[in-house]
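Minutes, project check-in

Agenda point 3 was the complex the collaborators sent over. CS summarized: two entities, 821 residues total, and the question is how they sit relative to each other. Sequences were read into the notes so everyone works from the same version.
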Amino acid sequence: MLSRVAERVYWMARYLERAEKTARLINVHTALLMDLPGRMEINWYTLIRLFNADSLFREHYQRGDETSIMLFLIADRNNPASLASSLANVRENVRTSLDVLPEEIWEQANQIHLLMTDSLPRIADRYNRQIFLREVMKHCQCIRGALDSHMSRDHSFDFMQIGKHLERADMSSRILEMTSLLLSEGRSDTLRKYDGIVWTNLLQALSARQMYLQHIHSRVEGQRVMRFLLNDDVFPGSIGYCLSAMGRRMRYLPDPELAATMAQRIFEHLQAHDLSTIPAEQVHTLMDYLQVELGVLHGEIAKTWFYPDHVGQQQSQG
Amino acid sequence: MKTEWNQYDPGSLYDELIAAKHQPREASFRLVEYLRHLTPDRFRQCVQESEAVIREMGITFTVYSDAGNIDRAWPFDIIPRIIPAKEWDCTEMGLKQRIRALNRFIQDIYNGAHIIKDGVIPADVVLQSKGYREACLGMTPPHGVWANICGSDLVRHSDGVMYVLEDNLRVPSGVAYMLENRNITKRVLPEIFNTLPIRPVSDYPAHLYEMLASLRPDLDDPTIALMTPGIYNSAYFEHAFLARQAGLVLLEGADLSIGKDGYVYMKTIKGLERVDVIYRRIDDEFIDPEVFHPDSMLGVPGIMRAWKEGKIAIANAPGCGVADDKVIYAYVPDMIRYYLGEEPTLPNVPTYVCRRQEDRDYVLEHLAELVVKPANESGGYGMLVGPHSTPEKVEEFRHLIQENPNNYIAQPTLSLSVTPTACEIQANPAEQRRADDPQTRIRIAPRHVDLRPFILSGKDIFVTPGGLTRVALVEGSLVVNSSQGGGSKDTWIVGDVLEGEEI
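CS then shared the predicted structure for the full assembly.
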């Protein structure tokens, strides 16, 4: 398999995951804000901080209101993490990997692109925006379904799985990073009052609510949610699950030792933490650490399989 | 929709949103303004979207008919019903007071019956209640609470006062529709949530779980199951919905058995696993063929024994239906005074108990003005609504009452409040509404509503903010039951809007 092709399908899977998670996050966050009173720590700007996009956002926008933030996160191609950017990158990577992907993926990628172009003028309106976001999620799931059922479990598939799980772990860690806000001793009384609702929505943003309820058999409560999303070993959205899935996939590939060991090390580092005793500030630190480590892991993956000659090694996408 | 709203006139009826023609109430002002400014096309789009969501999410209820059972889409009206937070806080207090007294009453009835000995309520009134279960004598469920989940029906009369119409204590249903109604509104009218502090309802399943878990204070992590009569039950959608939302095991009687140690077990692929709390959605008569209906296929033989020995908690407790009776209802205000030493915060509808000679004489004399109800029916069946009835029907009820006075109560015909509801302009309003036809004009018209809040009692008491508003979609009709042409609405408890606040 060509390194170039491996890199493209890997990124295709990452962008696909990012697009779906971003759409879901915005959709769930909108529904959450409808339940919360005004003037509290959680607002529209929370989303900007979640994507670590403060400075980029301020560079392009004057006001931190719903319209600007939605424009920035959904439509703005200046924002590399926007839904539009992710979907454009999905399409671009599909277009250049047509030889290895099932036919209908290209059709789907074009449909989702058309949906995006047609809908952009209407997303300022919350009603149309929510409909649009649900459509995006549906299309992403269609693509994933076609990949899952039509592709041989060959190396292309392995790289896609690795890309998907790495992106998923990264998105989960960003969302979990926000929980330091929810756990902090200094949080407002208003926020305390809505604890349950906020944690439930957090689970929902990671499509984890139902599985949490089924497996944890307990009310939705901060520490348990944290533990579930970090270390649950059967829920496919937990960071621990993603890391071990990545490790397993890597072992199917040639020369996996360095990358797989690195994934295993991050996994063990997470397991070593007893989350029920971690103060809020350290959740933040732990997630920061995790995001850095995931970046390094990506570097290792690129070095091993995408740029084996060590020439021109760079993050061509991101 | 300006024309449609300008034409809206509740007349002499009490309207939940509109004080008088062209005058929205304070708490409804922003909603009405928002809806006024929607174009008719956009409004129709919202109605269509709501219908599509209901079909997509499979929100249905089953109607039993001669032609077989039909799964019908849940009829929903997109215009929410609003109650100001200040008023609601009082109502909530009243509901808590009421459920405390009702639980004390049930506990008393099965443990000494002091209220009968003290002459507050006659013994035969209690014994005639279909929900009375001799098998429960001497039993005290956890926290002394029998009715863990209660759905009380409230109505507002033309005097603007909310009255309690009945307390559903057996297996009250509708809470899933309350939750789904809010989800639908968030989808079809998302913009309006910006401008109003609307109390969220979405944490009901969490409160339900907490309440059920509190019934086994001795266990850290009890196994909790929801027991359904099965997929043919009219509320099956709700059973599955609540199990999913609250993380309960959804099972039927056949999945359970009693072990040699007397505990209740469910049959799993790993063998038998113990169940600690059961939220039963079947009538207690069917719960244990050893004690009640011997031919019940729905129940678990021996489960009553396990319950009495404290080996399983059951919500609602068997026997709690004794207080869900239209004759006993008439005595609830006296119960509140007797057990709590307080005056009732929420009034009962004035009720004539036909077993009392003087009440019966009055009822028979004024039959054509009154609403007559049999003691033990629900779902609006077997009722007479005097003013909306025929002389033949009135005579029929005269005979029924004379033959069996103990089984009937009568109440003045309330003028139920109305609220703006989207209707079609059509000769026959009873016809199924068709919003997808662009030729049909939508009209806003007053329709009668009631309200069913849900009260959870375990270690603590929790009341849903608002509840399920049911609406009689047929013009002039007072029957809100979904089995008889009723629909429902989202219900908003709206706090004061702070100046300049954006959410």
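Noted in discussion: Residues 499-503 of chain B have pLDDT under 50 and may be disordered.
Follow-up: revisit at the next meeting once the mutant set is ready.
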